[in-house]
Amino acid sequence: MIRTATRVLALSIALLAVGCHDSNKVTNVDPLPARVDGVYSVTGDGEVTIYWRPNQDNDIDHYKIYRNSAPTGTFSLIGTSTSTSFVDTHVTNGVTYYYAVSAVDLAGQESAELSFENVFDTPRPEGFGATITNTFSADSISGWDFSARARRSSLDPSTDIYYGAQNGHFIVYVPIDTEIQDAGYVPLRDVDFAPPSGWSADGQVEAIVGHSYIVLTRDNHYAKFEVQARSSASMLFDWAYQIDPNNPELTRRVPK
């Protein structure tokens, strides 16, 4: 009994000594993940893709993506991703959305702050491989109505652009109450915002393969298209149209 008691007493003294010694040590606390940065978005048709830089912490498990209808206020969680991108398909064309991202580590700790970039996006419809005919030979489908995604006659009041080829000249025309300008040899995806000026003085531009063009319709909607092919019979083009009036955003440029 005495031996046992002595061992217990000795062990208690030893533990007390260790406890006193360890109290001088600094506890190793796992810090919260750093704030996510480099967030940007790319506009799509009925979708928005959000990208960001990889977090520099080496114990990141996943990222959380948040969305709001305004640049400030409460952002709601809409999904997670283990990569550095996320596609939001629960959007409506013509509606503007604001996004933020946070990081979560293996311990389940989340960044104390959301990403600070003011990232917003307005998805819009787009199309590829549309064809309109030469107004001088087949006028009934020589025009294009961006809002309806449909071919029209050049004289139809809904027509936004129409095509004409004559005497070796290939021309895209717009009605008198519509504006157009040539953006040059720029891929359609890189035409991100419509400029406030620079419109054609006579409502027509030369149709050049590989050139992109910007249109401001009669009802104040912006559109863009890129000529893929042209001939004396027709013009082939890709396009995008912003259904939110007076909104010049046509796509967010992807950083190279």
TrEMBL record:
PROSITE patterns: FN3, PROKAR_LIPOPROTEIN. This is Fibronectin type-III domain-containing protein. Residues 32-125 form the Fibronectin type-III domain. InterPro entries: FN3_dom, FN3_sf, Ig-like_fold. It comes from the Bacteria.
